[in-house]
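Researcher: Can you fold this with flavin-adenine dinucleotide in place?
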Amino acid sequence: MEGFVYSQPGTLREAFSLLTNKKGKLVAGGTDLLGEIQDGIIAPGLLVSLERIQGLKTMREEKNGLRIGALVTLAELESDKIVAEHYPLLAAAAGEVATPQLRAQATIGGNLCQRPRCWYYRGDFNCLKKGGAVCYAEDGENQYHAILGGGPCHIVHPSDMAVALLAMGASARVVGPRGEKTVPLEKFFVLPQVDVKRETILAPGEILVEIRVPKPLPEARWVFRKMRERGAWDFALVSVAAYAVTKDKVIQEARIVLGGVAPIPWRAVRAEQALKGKTLTGPVMRLAGEATVTDARPLSQNEYKIRLARNLVRQVLATLA
Ligand SMILES: Cc1cc2nc3c(=O)[nH]c(=O)nc-3n(C[C@H](O)[C@H](O)[C@H](O)COP(=O)(O)OP(=O)(O)OC[C@H]3O[C@@H](n4cnc5c(N)ncnc54)[C@H](O)[C@@H]3O)c2cc1C
Ligand code: SF4
């Protein structure tokens, strides 16, 4: 591992300058970034920590919802009383990430901006995402790869928090040398067909500073479920977050988001359409499960994910019924 300089700017302006002029790399909890450096995927000469920048570690509830600073840790989200009471989907998802030790260090900003876990990307392969000419997963070991939205790269987005936040209708506040913008989280992530080398809209020098989560409607209900292959700390094979607003048992609005199936947290729009205006009967849940995977295009070794996704959506809806 090559050495690097560690810098702790006190303001965002200083951070922008280090990120753009000195080609620094942003670090939050470091749980993903240091792994990338250790594995030789990146070799930044300068790490720019957000630690000393004011306001990024706070979380507060306002009239319209929750504001979460990018440096709030997953452990804080998991244990916060307000989150547990009013936004339990977030607490549930945070509690499903990795191990307690990791959650104590990992930040919400880092979780959303973490890089993919594709073993070719993490290994010694100069694939498309690293600037090479080939996606090794296409004809290789692709059992954990995407069944939806893939091509030319077939990663799955690794973040559990992104799935839950999208279902809650969250947005991301991004600041950079040219100003700031707030975008729906759905538009924060980009498919490989848009840009194969990155997973978010962040341009060099831009920083995700805050996540905003609207206050759920009183009639809203939600569920988060995650299926893993091995230990309790594993990444999702498939996960589903559902948020539904019902009136007299009829679904007025539903957001169904899947993790582990696509290069971005995947909104199952066809399933949502199948649910709107319906009550959650067996046939409706089955239809929504089928609609989730209508567009699936599995690779040679991951067809099993179609069944998992379809069944998990049905299970989640049964919990909401
Ligand atoms: C063993 C293990 C198991 C794991 N299991 C899971 C799991 O089950 N579910 C899951 O969701 N995740 C899992 N993870 C991933 C883990 O959640 C992430 O490593 C962590 O959330 C990253 O947060 P961090 O603060 O440490 O980010 P860092 O490692 O500091 O940064 C990660 C990336 O995001 C960028 N970045 C960080 N903050 C910002 C910001 N505010 N604005 C712009 N860019 C930023 C960094 O430049 C870097 O590229 C696992 C990781 C490990 C090592
Ligand atoms: S899926 Fe993406 S990251 Fe993995 S080998 Fe293919 S191009 Fe590289």
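Model: Folded with flavin-adenine dinucleotide in place. The longest helix spans residues 304-320.
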